[in-house]
Structures are given as C-alpha cells and as structure tokens.
Fold this protein.
Amino acid sequence: MSSEPFFRSIGELSAALARGELSSVDLMRSVIARTEAVEPKVRAFNSFDREDALAQARSSDLRRAAGASLGPLDGIPIGMKDVIAVAGQPLTASSRMLANFVSPYDATVVKRLRAAGAICWGRLNLDEFAMGSSTENSAFQATANPYALDCVPGGSSGGSAAAVAAGEAIASLGSDTGGSIRQPAAFCNVVGLKPTYGLVSRYGLIAFASSLDQIGPFARSVEDVAILLGAIAGHDPLDSTSFHTGIPDYRAELDRRKGPWRLGIPKEYFGEGLDPEVAEAVQRAVAHYQKLGCEVKPVSLPHTEYGVGVYYIIATAECSSNLARYDGVRYGHRSKEAKDAVDLYFRSRAEGFGSEVKRRIILGTYVLSSGYYDAFYLRAQKVRTLIRNDFLAAYREVDAILTPTAPTPAFRRGAKADPLAMYLCDVYTIGVNLAGLPAVSVPCGFSQDGRPIGMQLIGQPYGEAELLGIARAYERDHPWAQKRPVL
Amino acid sequence: MNYEAVIGLEVHVQIKTRSKMFTRAPAGYGHDVNTLTDPVVLALPGVLPVMNKAALDAVVKAGLLLGCEIAPVCKWDRKNYFYPDSPKNYQISQYDRPICLGGAVEIELPGPARNIQGEHKRIPLTRIHLEEDVGKLNHGALDSLIDYNRAGTPLMEIVSEPAMHSAEEAFAFLTSLRLAMIYAGISDCDMEKGQLRCDANISVRPAGQTKLGTKVELKNLNSISFVRDGIAHEIRRQIGVVNAGGVIVQETRDYDGLTGTSQSLRSKEMAHDYRYFPDPDLMPVKVDEAWKQRLQATCPELPFDKQRRFLSHYQIPYTITSVLIPDQALSNFFEEAVALAGIQQAQVVGNWIANDLLRELGAAKRALADSLLRPVHVAELVKLIEAGVLLMPAAREVFAEMFASGELPGAIVDRRGLRAVTNEGDLEQWCREALAGNPKSVADFKAGKESALNAFKGPVMKAAKGKANPKLVDETLRRLLAQSN
C-alpha cells in the first residue's frame, strides 16, 4: 500500500485497521487533513465537524480493541449528501430555506451505516433540493470538478462525487432522481450506483420526487460500492415503498458473477447530441466486453425520446407537493417581513428557494391543476409504463444494457444557463428512474483534455449483484478510477 | 309558496387508535401541547408516512356496519393546500377511490309523543373515506399558536347523499351514526373533544321541484344541538332570501352556535384547487375477502336492530328501550340481568335499571363501568321481590345500599332483618285476630263492600312489624273470610 490512507479502498483500509497498521483515528486525521488541504479548490462540503468525526473514529478504535469490530465499514469515513438526515448535523439541501436546520433524527441508511460502524463524515454539497445537474444550483457554493477545476462535478450529487474523487471521503452516499448519482460519478471518475427503486429506504432522505428518488453509494471501486450497498439495502418498515427482498452479500457475489453476459446497446442512446469522445470511450468498453466473451446485441427502447418530458412532469408534480412543507411555520427560513399567515408563506418561500426550485414548483403546480391533470400527469404516468415496458422487453434478450452515462464530459461552470440545455444532461439516465431499474456508472476513460468519461450499465429489477459483477469484470482490466486528480 | 329543504351531511369521525394514521406517535386528547408529535407528525424534512392498519380496519368495519361496498384496494391521494394547521401543507386522503361506497344510516324521527316510537327511514350514504386530521390553531391578539397533537389522527369522512329534508332528520342521522360508531368501538364520538364534526350542505327548492337549489355549505356545527339549530337557521335564511326575491349564492358559511347566526366564509370563486394526485409515498393496500370477513365478525348488532330485538324478544316497553339502547353498556347490563332473573322478569329488570340504577349513577356521578352494582345484584333483588321475601319500600333501600357497597341483596336483607314474614302460620294467626277484632267490617265485606278488606290490613301489618307481604295478607284474609261462612 503505497498511497495515502485517504485514497485507499474500503477493502484495503479495513484490512489495515484489522491488522493494527492503522487506527481509525489515523485514517480520520488523514481524511481531515486532505479535506482541509483541497477543499478551498473543490468546495465539496457544505460543512463538516472534525471533532464529531474523530469521536466516531475513537469509538471505532475502542470497538476494534475490544474485539467487537462491526465489519468492513467500521471506522471508515463515509460522506453524506446534504439531503440525508444525520441526527445532530445540519440538513440543508443546499438551500437557504434550510440553512439553519439541524436534523433531530437519523435516516434509515444512516442508522444502518452506524450499525456497521461507519463514520458519518460531513455534509456534501448538491444542487438545491437535488434539482440540477451541475451543483451550480447550490445556494451556498459551486463545487469544482477535481479533474478539471473550472468544470462542474455534475449533479445533483456533485459534492458526493467530488469528495470521493478528491480523497476527502473514502466513499459517500448520494441520491438519484434522474441521474443525480450516475452523471456526477461519470464526471468525477468514480463509481456511482442508483439501486432499484425500493431497495434502499428513503426514510430520512429529503424528498424531491418520491416515486423516482433513491439513495445510492459513490466509491472509487465497484467493490467498495458493493460493500456500501450491502450495508444500506433492505426493507425498512418506515418506508412503505421499500421492498421485501433478500439482500445478497454483494461483495462476495462480485467474483462469483462471471458471465459471459448478453449486453444490449440501445440505438436511441447513441444518437444526436452525443459527444464523439464519449461515444468512442463507450464503444471501446463495449469492445472490451466482447473480448471477454460477452454477446453484444442492439436493442430498442423506442419510448426513450419521451423520457425527459415525462420526467419533468412527474418529478415536478411530486416536488411541488413535497416542498410545500417548507413554509416558514415550523422550521427553516421564516421571512421577517410577513404581515400574516399567507404573506408568511409567500415571503418565506420567495426568499428561501432558488430560481430552479421555484421553476419546478410552478411547473408541478401547473401540471396538477384542475383541468390539466389528465392531459399531463395521468398521460405521463401512462408513458412511464411504456418506458418501463421497453426495458423489460429488452431484458428478454439481454442481461444488461450498456449506454453512455451522460452525453458529454463535465462542462464548464456557467456553460449551461438555459434550463432546457441542463435538463438534457440527464437524457440517458432519466429512463432508468422512470422504470425503477438499477444502474451503475463506471469510469471508462478520459477526454483528450483529461475530463473523465463514464459508461452506464443498466440492470434488471433487484439485479444489483449481477450488475455489479458486470461492472467489476470491466473495472478489473480497466481501473480508470485509480487515476487520481492533480490537486 | 311551500319550500322543501335538501340536506346532505359530511361527518368527520376520529378513529380511536393508539397511534396516528401514518406514524407511531400516540394519538390522544387533553395532553400538553405538541407532545403527541414526532418527525412525521411535524413533517420534518425526509420523513415518510406508514399506514396504520388498525385505522384501515376501523373504516372497513364502519363500512361493513353501514352496508357499504368495500373497495378491493385502499388507495391514497394527496390533497394539496396551504394552511398552518396542516404540517405538510397537504393532507393524505382518498379522492377518486374511497374505501367505502354506498351504504345507509337508519334514522328514527321523533314520534307523536315521547313514549311512542317514531317513523324510521334509511338515509343513503355516498361514500366513506379515510384521511388524517390536522392540528389546532389558537388565535391570540398578536399571534397564532399551533398545537399539532391532533395532527395526523386517523379521521373518517362520512358523506351522505342529499337525502334529508329537515333539521330533525339531520339531527337523527347524526345521533344514529354516532351511536353506531360508539357501538362498534370505532370512535367515542365526543363532539366536545372534536371526535365527531359535522358540515352540512343545504339548499331549498319549491315543493314538488326535482331540480336541486343552489347549495350552501355550513361549517362548524360542532355540537349536536348546533347541527339542528344551525340547519334550521340556514333553511329559514334561504327561504327568507328567496321570498324576498333574492338569489342563493353558492358559498361556505360559518355557523356561530352561541349567537345562532352565520356568516359567509368564502364564495365558490374562492374555492381551492386541491391538485389531488396519488401519494407516491404509500402503496395501495389490498383489502381481500378474508380481511373483510375477519372484520365482519367483529361488527356489533346495530342499535336499531337491538331495539327491535328488545321490543320483540323481551316484550319491554318502547320507553325502556329508549333508555337502554343509547347506552351499549346499559343494554348489556340489562341483558345479563334478565338472563339471571328469567325472561318473564324482563320488564321489572328494565324498570329497576331505567329508574333506580340511572338515578343512583346520576347522584353518585359515576359511570356504569365504575359501579359496584353488577347484573347479578339486580337479578337477585328482582327474584327476592318475586318470591315475596323483599317488600317494595324496603327493596328501594336495599337497592341504594347494594349500589353503595356492592353487597349482594340477600346478604343485606338478612343482615338488616328485612326478610318479609313468609311463615304462613304466623300470618294466618294475625289475620284471624284482625278479623275477630272487627266484626263490622267482616259483615260489610260479606255484604259486598270490597274496600272493607283494607280495614284488616293495617292491624295485620302492625302485628307483622311491616314485614308481611301485602299480596299474601290479601290472599289469606280472603281465604279466611270465605271459610268463615
């Protein structure tokens, strides 16, 4: 092990911790020092609490000394997107609305990570309320791409991706509603998994669009993603949409899944708007799978073109209702100018929300309005079913679907001022959320100017073990995520 | 011109569950403000609802009880509107697919006199659905404070068809519905605690016209007498407007029961667009046949069915049933006591309960459940009287004493020496002495003066120190007089 602790994998670190070569406090200090060194450039964190993290690390060391280690995550610092509730820590959604809100409770994923001994480390930046694809919509700061500091890290989980890429966390959790884990993972040269809808509890995740949101891990290897997924997945009685299913040992399954697989290539994902460098990198990955003996077949997902439209109806409708609770009455930003209750709502929300959030609330309020519901929301739900059926039909012929994660590598901050241009960043990732499928973004190369490129592998419902096995088969030969950013 | 009023009611009934509709936080009344809360009740960022199955059970039971069709799936919708008593600024409710459709509430209209049963009618229901209650605002001079204890309490909305035509019918509907819910253990329906709340849709039309008039929604009818008074007031108001050449506008009015007046809250143009859509946080829940059968088995006999059974099976008067039926515990008490005393004693048992027991409970300000007096006491008392062991004035004293102490009547009678003389030898001797001491009355009686018999009773009672059974004394005197010919 030559690299600094902050760049090692969970597997390496847990082995070193077990052998006593390293303490969790040493590791945490290493991560804190790294964070303090690079954070002025990266700006991945909304906040972090050194003393709290070191206290968690000390507890981990005490457990290990007592022979009561809780497993591979015990003592490993995991960064948290600032939409996941951790008791006693800020929970801001990168919004002025919640700038001063401290969560009194733990999200279910946090409870599970604590039970596995992980250290909840820092509050990672995002597009306000997870609405955006560049993390520029944060009310607090724009996070930089560690591989290209003038570029965005993607979004909405830009902080989660950038922190892991920059060595400011060993791994992290993000959330994905239309690509918010996979696109920043692709932009930041890390592995990011959006699990099947219902695999991971949403309790304690600030809701953007409830029928699309899913929490998932970021890490620098498929194996680390598998370890984290194993810790957070599984039915939660506090989330009615969480699924009753057996959770395999994802890490152990990685090397048992050997293929060869039948991979589907949807032509709709390789058309207009796809950057040639991205297309080339993804084609090279496809060729590598062929070399490994996989059968590569063209498949069709004919309703793909409706994905973005359907998404922006369903997601905005749900968000208009989900964000109604931020009213300045019980917590969060409260306007000091308000004259009465109605005025309090108007002013608090006008002052507390940023423009993208307002745009989506207005859009969602409109599509749910009396007289418009059938034409927009109801029809969008029907098309959503067609999109899901497209995928399920493809899975009669293939085991997984391989696409680019995003049409382009990371773009420059400020390059996409038009909301529609920004929405099209998610054109390849949105269908997966609408269909409720699992998908992982795996690094597959770099552009000539050094910006990372990711490919997306889309799996079958609750087929995460197989999906990660497919990802691992590529990563074993092409460990792009091991290329560190220069900071 | 004659007018007909058309009335439909929307009744909200809080369901009696331990926890709230979508979280484990406890439900209750009268606790310190904002103590029955948790992150879900307060709609903190990130929380999710989980359905309380007991509340769904209760509404399905209510539907079965009222003859509704139960939907095969319980589906949840969000009703979006901003108001400070609603923590999420949307209410989880049921929109296009309520859990119960149809059904009816049987009502009894007032009879021509208190002791005469009135006409019965069935008021059809449109639907029953399940939702969550909101918090409570307390408006001060400078600010408003919110208590979220009530927020999230399971709430059932029962909507009647516009099928009632008088305030009396609406009153009877509410009374009957309330009692059915109490019988089934679904709610305590205490209006003072807001466990039952009622809004009314009221319109008037010229008698004979089939088209409905413009409706006005009357809100805040928050006591059962306000419902009657408020509706009567609104009917008079509408007829007054029409008679004066005016037009009824569709609006929501707020009734003030204390002043007996109402004022407009909002017009139709200001009606909310609730932007209903299916709640993506809650999966639809299947309600299958087995589920329904399990609940059907827990449905009690409806109050009016019980009343019909009491009238026919026990042959007790209507007036006694109208005391017993509104109180399920009292009805059960009656049936248990009759079972012990024998069915031929049903009316006597009924009288003791309807008169003496209720009087004692009232005087002691005690609930039946807390009473030491059990059905066995009443049954034993009635049997002692029937056997002639206990006489009437003394029986009242025994009743009061057993009510106070819980001691069985037989024991009280013995301890206090109240046992009536049943030794026929003694009684016959006293009667002979009484007859011998008053030959004139003997002659009068024999001459056909029936009332002369009373002249002997006083001396017999005196000799018996008041403990002779008057019926037995009467019989013995007649027998001796007949023999002495």
Remarks:
- The mean pLDDT of chain B is 94.
- The two ends of chain B are 79 Å apart (CA to CA).
- Chain B has 15 helices and 17 strands.
- Residues 108 and 336 of chain B are 26 Å apart (CA to CA).
